[in-house]
Write a structure and sequence with these properties.
The structure holds two protein chains of two kinds. Chain A is mainly alpha-helical. Chain A has helices at residues 2-15, 25-35, 54-83, 90-123, 130-140, 148-162, 176-187, 189-192, 217-222, 241-246, 258-270, 276-296, 307-312, 316-323, 334-354, 361-393, and strands spanning 36-37, 231-232, 234-238. Chain A has three domains: 1-49, no CATH class; 55-273, no CATH class; 274-394, no CATH class. In chain A, helix 5 (130-140) packs parallel to helix 7. The termini of chain A are far apart. Chain B is α/β, with parallel strands linked by helices. The longest helix of chain B has 19 residues, at 3-21. Mean pLDDT of chain B is 92; it is low at 1-8 and 12-20. The chains are: A mainly alpha, B alpha/beta. Chains A and B meet through strand 1, helix 3 and helix 16 of A and strand 20, helix 12 and helix 13 of B.
Chain lengths: 394, 473
């Protein structure tokens, strides 16, 4: 610790006012505050401050993502080994997935933080911690075979257009991770759709056993299957709701295991980092819409999907726990959060069922509701304003 | 009339009088807030202060004041002699708390007066003011007496927190004898023997408003006799975490402020000073203050005078050099120099360590010695632990990111973030709609404390209030 402190102290005079590298002070500050909580003391207002800061907040979210990440890495290996008919131990499968996912994570952080540092440099303040979380979210919501250059382009788009043009962390309207995903979805549709992209090596085709299908449960429903004839990999294996909940099915890297996501949810709720109102409302809204469809949609296979299936398929759970709960892009009032969450769940299932050609219903739903979050707050706060005016007249 | 009829008539009259004057006690539970338990709570003992020669009245203590001096250095004064007045409202006078002579007039940038320092002659001679039973005096006479004696500045008004306008009539007057702030003063202990003067003070206040006098007390403790026997006042006990003791919280629950309305507030010890004026005809601003904080070797109460030099109270009780002296509490107090003076509205001196040190990876380590409202730390598992907190920011300033934080510690019927954003964007209409008339910075002090993004919410609100004073008045 003293060693690092000494290095930083030696560089410090050069980056402060009057030093030769004065204009790099924001980059230096960002590195220094990573290693050390700074020695700044309060100047106005309350003399003491809470020990909590944004770094710790973001760090906790990354910790909550780890179960989904680790499971996802193992699942990448698992799906690939089944597809190629290989045998392997837990470690083999995990290591395979690790080697496939790690480069995506590295590209995401290097490119993303690079742009953040550039913007912080231009603006003259510290690098904001927002990308700690976004950088981990992006690799988890894309197919594992996404080319790295595509990831880099999506990250650049997401950080600049999705966040920095609005003013940086805390000012963005849309969830940057979902902007990256939406960018990939609309700019490179052939790489982002179909049944071959979810399992590593399927697009290539080399070594894949005949008859293997990498179709996600949502894709199978779109093709007309019923809950009874869903298959998992090969035609003789049935995909049950339990399989979908545990997550050893094809899908984006981190979204398949509802269980792993729920462990993350518990971490976020116990530490108070994520708002339970949003999470619960999203699940409730999705279940509600699914039930409505069940009641009115007799004869229509997609509407007959049991309501609870929606909560465990696709990106629903991941979106509910990690995306909808992003405090910056969600509604800010407590009442607003409930309305916001319910609408996300409702619209996600609505998109899925009424327009099955759009597989990323959750992503679109959250981005859609991001636009309306301020409007929801407007009406909630409006009620308070009306109450105050009424009291003044009384 | 038969004897029975006569007795019944008298009894009805007696009951009627009893109901009209008696204290109405009810309890209100405050559900939101945060108690920050710090080391260095004042022991329940009161000592006299060491002889201090110097006292000061500080114009910066008063919002929006443009002081005009009535004295020069060397001028002889008594307790109650005018030393400066408000240039914009010359009837509001500020008087010397002690007798002696003007020792110095400290100025800052652009010749702004920072302190008027008086050297006491230890004789405590008083200017003579009117005295009498306030119940029998007219409102005009009472106001004049308060203005002349220099007691008027004790009256703070809401909205804005400025010294009250003597020409306005408040719809109610609030006093809080419940200091719920960290290391707060225990008014049940301090006010035990002040019942008589408190009553005279309250009777005076009764003449100044068309509404009620409200007294807020700590609901978690038994009511002391000094309060129980008070008349002409509505007493409400509050239970809950800070800011359950703040006047702002009480006003919101009992008599919320609407546009165009004015409410006045006073500290209980200031009401006692009013009582002394009308009973003895002199400006006697002695008070009991608490010397608290982790850096004080023996925290306790001291009997002292308004404007005392803090070193006369602290003496050699603080051995650490790297400390911050605060006149007031750690959330809303003002930083003062070691050789500085007690603030006009403050009843405590808090001494805590400065936090000008780095912490290696402090944002990840468990930090058992730090207090946080967040459950990513462990302070929520040890609710009775007392902490030594320093002045370190514990992070860097960021934009508003986390939501729902401020709402946990603001028990008022307002949306804090929306109001603050309206202040930042200088949107006067929005500020009005969202309740700017109802709050002062102290109501947002806990927001300063809990903010993950280290926003200066009190400063933002103050700027908003100043803008309202300028544009709306």
């Amino acid at each position: 610790m003293k060693f690092i402190r000494n290095i930083l102290d030696n560089i410090k005079p050069h980056v402060q006012k009057g030093g030769k590298f004065e204009k790099f002070h924001s980059t230096f500050d960002s590195i220094e505050t990573l290693f050390f909580v700074p020695d700044h003391v309060t100047r106005v207002g309350a003399h003491i401050r809470d020990a909590m800061d944004l770094k710790r907040n973001m760090f906790t979210v990354v910790i909550a993502l780890i179960p989904a990440l680790l499971f996802g890495m193992w699942n990448v290996g698992y799906q690939h080994f089944i597809a190629t008919g290989q045998e392997g131990s837990l470690i083999d499968l995990f290591f395979f997935g690790f080697l496939k996912v790690l480069p995506i994570i590295v590209v995401s952080y290097v490119v993303g933080l690079g742009i953040e540092i550039l913007f912080a440099q231009i603006r003259g303040h510290e690098v904001n911690e927002g990308y700690f979380v976004t950088g981990m979210l992006i690799p988890l919501i894309i197919p594992v075979d996404t080319p790295l250059w595509m990831v880099a382009v999506a990250v650049i788009f997401a950080v600049i257009i999705g966040k920095e043009v609005f003013g940086g962390t805390g000012m963005n309207i849309f969830n940057p991770a979902l902007i990256a995903r939406a960018f990939l979805f609309f700019a490179y549709p052939s790489s982002m759709s179909g049944d071959k992209i979810w399992v590593n090596g399927l697009t290539d085709g080399t070594g894949i056993t005949d008859g293997f299908s990498g179709a996600t449960p949502l894709a199978q429903f779109t093709a007309g299957s019923t809950p009874n004839d869903l298959i998992l990999g090969f035609a003789d294996k049935h995909m049950s709701a339990f399989d979908m909940f545990m997550g050893w099915i094809p899908g984006s890297v981190g979204e398949t295991s509802t269980l792993a996501i729920l462990i993350g949810a518990v971490i976020l709720l116990l530490t108070g980092i994520a708002n339970w109102k949003v999470m619960l409302s999203v699940f409730a809204g999705g279940y509600l819409m699914g039930t409505i469809f069940n009641l009115v949609g007799a004869g229509h296979p997609y509407m007959e999907i049991p309501a609870y299936y929606h909560l465990i398929m696709g990106g629903f759970a991941f979106g509910a726990v990690f995306m909808a709960t992003d405090p910056v892009t969600a509604s800010q009032t407590e009442t607003g959060k409930i309305i916001y969450g319910l609408l996300i769940g409702i619209v996600a299932v609505l998109i899925r069922v009424v327009n099955p050609a759009y597989p990323e219903g959750m992503m679109l739903s959250i981005l859609f509701l991001n636009t309306f979050a301020p409007l929801i707050d407007y009406y909630v706060v409006g009620a308070n304003i009306k109450k105050r005016l009424k009291r003044a007249k009384a | 009339m038969s004897e029975i009829q006569f007795f019944t008539l008298e009894k009805r009259q007696i009951i009627y009088t009893f109901v009209k004057n008696t204290v109405i006690m009810n309890n209100i539970k405050i559900n939101r807030g945060l108690n920050i338990k710090l080391k260095g709570m004042a022991d329940k003992s009161i000592s006299d202060t060491k002889l201090s020669a110097l006292f000061a009245v500080k114009p910066p203590d008063f919002l929006g004041l443009a002081p005009k001096l009535s004295v020069k250095v060397g001028h002889e004064v008594k307790a109650g002699t005018v030393i400066f007045f408000d240039k914009n409202r010359p009837e509001i006078k500020f008087t010397s708390p002690v007798s002696g002579k003007i020792y110095a007039i400290e100025r800052g940038a652009r010749r702004k007066i920072l302190e008027v320092v008086i050297e006491s002659n230890n004789k405590q001679e008083y200017e003579a003011f009117k005295k009498g039973d306030p119940n029998k005096m007219s409102k005009e006479d009472i106001v004049e007496n308060l203005l002349n004696s220099g007691i008027w500045p004790f009256f703070k008004q809401r909205p804005y927190g400025t010294v009250a306008n003597p020409e306005s009539t408040p719809k109610s007057i609030f006093i809080s004898a419940f200091d719920s702030a960290p290391l707060g003063v225990d008014y049940n202990y301090v006010m035990q023997n002040e019942g008589k003067m408190l009553q005279i003070g309250i009777d005076t206040l009764k003449q100044l408003t068309t509404g009620k006098i409200h007294l807020g007390i700590d609901g978690s403790e038994a009511t002391i006799d000094a309060f129980k026997s008070l008349k002409n006042v509505e007493i409400t006990s509050y239970t809950g975490k800070h800011p359950a003791g703040l006047v702002g919280t009480h006003i919101a629950k009992k008599d919320p402020i609407n546009k165009g309305e004015v409410v006045w507030q006073l500290n209980p010890q200031d009401v006692v000073v009013i009582g002394r004026l009308f009973s003895e005809g002199k400006f006697c601003a002695s008070r009991t203050i608490a010397l608290v904080g982790s850096e004080v070797s023996k925290p306790q109460y001291y009997k002292t005078m308004l404007g005392a030099k803090i070193s006369s109270i602290i003496g050699d009780l603080v051995s650490n050099d790297n400390v911050r002296y605060i006149s007031g509490n750690v959330l809303t107090g003002t930083k003062v120099h070691k050789e500085g003076y007690l603030g006009f509205y403050d009843s405590s001196i808090s001494v805590i360590p400065e936090g000008n040190h780095f912490q290696f990876f402090g944002w990840i380590t468990p930090n058992f010695h730090k207090f946080s409202i967040s459950k990513t730390y462990f302070s929520w598992l040890m609710p009775n632990k007392e902490y030594t907190l320093d002045t370190n920011f514990n992070g860097g300033q960021r934009a508003f990111v986390v939501t729902g934080q401020y709402e946990k510690v603001v028990p008022l019927d307002i949306y804090p973030v929306e109001l603050l954003k309206a202040c930042i964007t200088k949107d006067i209409d929005k500020m009005e709609q969202l309740g700017i008339y109802e709050v002062l910075e102290e109501d947002f002090a806990l927001c300063d404390y809990v903010c993950t993004s280290k926003q200066e919410t009190q400063e933002i609100l103050r700027k908003g209030l100043d803008l309202m004073i300028k544009e709306v008045g």
